Amino acid sequence: MRTPFIAGNWKMHKTVGEAVEAARKLEELVQGSPVEVAICAPFTSLAALSALGLSKVKLGAQNMYWADQGAFTGEISAAMLLDVGCEYVILGHSERRHIFKEDDELINKKVLQALQKGLKPILCVGETLEERRAGQTENVVVTQTTRGLAGVGADKLPTVVIAYEPVWAIGTGEYCDAADANQVIARIRQTLAELYSEELAQQVRIQYGGSVKPGNIREFMEQPEIDGALVGGASLDAEGFASIVRY
Ligand code: 13P
User: Residues 65-76: pLDDT tens digits?
Assistant: First the structure.
């Protein structure tokens, strides 16, 4: 059985003080939940969040670079993220792909590095509105999944989380129909079965992301292929995010 996993992606929000306050509140509100919970906070808040010693709420980052260390101004390494208590790292988020022009090859290098260093990647895949209208949704997610995971060994696959985030549903309030999301996620799982094995594919958690709110989370969680959610805007408020976790 796959443990449900709901993660908040705070994106470029919250000062250290704001992050600490929200995380403390969240930790209290989600105690006892059977769902695994994480917040992916800005780099600047991670050390302070780690120092809180939270037991229920895990920590993740929103990006990292693939090299061990070196002259890469502005970048953050896997070792640095481990040092500040991260267990997860979001890689290939659509904002990284579209605003910062990250491609599958770069994202794949990051995935391999994260796994090699012991971080669990949350690999994001998803189609744009144009691609959806052109009937390319499944092609896009299959390609991004296959390229993103190139070279990942079967032994590491179960620690990978995939987030299906249709680009048109991110931050728009317009969410994907849950049955449609389930179908795309089933296609991603089938891709994993083809690349690895059915048994391994069944172990990988695949989240839905894109305008998830307290009012729609249950529809997604009722779908057999959807194992959780990656929540942006609605994760910023601790009470709102806790009500998503307690769907
Ligand atoms: P929203 O929940 O704000 O649509 O963002 C989704 C997202 O990008 C999570 O990574």
Answer: 999 999 999 999
pTM higher than 0.90 for the full model? Answer: yes
**Total tally of structural domains belonging to the chain:** 1
Give the active site residues.
93, 165
Instruction: Give residue 21's identity as a one-letter amino acid code.
Output: E
Kindly state whether residue 119 falls inside one of the protein's structural domains: yes
**CATH number of the structural domain spanning residue 124:** 3.20.20.70
CA 57 to ligand 1 centroid distance, Å: 19
44: containing domain: 34-95+102-234
pLDDT digits (tens, 9 = 90+) for 162-198: 999 999 999 999 999 999 999 999 999 999 999 999 9
**214 touches ligand 1 (CB under 6 Å):** no
Say how many C-beta atoms besides its own lie within 10 A of residue 21's C-beta.
13
Tokens for 110, please give them.
């990051």
Q: Which residue has the tokens 């942006």?
A: 232
Query: Does 165 sit in the ligand 1 pocket, CB within 6 Å?
Result: yes
Q: Where are the beta strands (DSSP E) in 86-227?
A: 88-91, 120-125, 161-164, 205-209
| Alpha carbons 227 and 222: distance in angstroms, whole number | 9
**For ligand 1, atom 5: residue with the closest CA:** 232
Is ligand 1 within 6 A of the CB of residue 9?
yes
**Phi, then psi, of 183 in degrees rounded to 5:** -70, -40
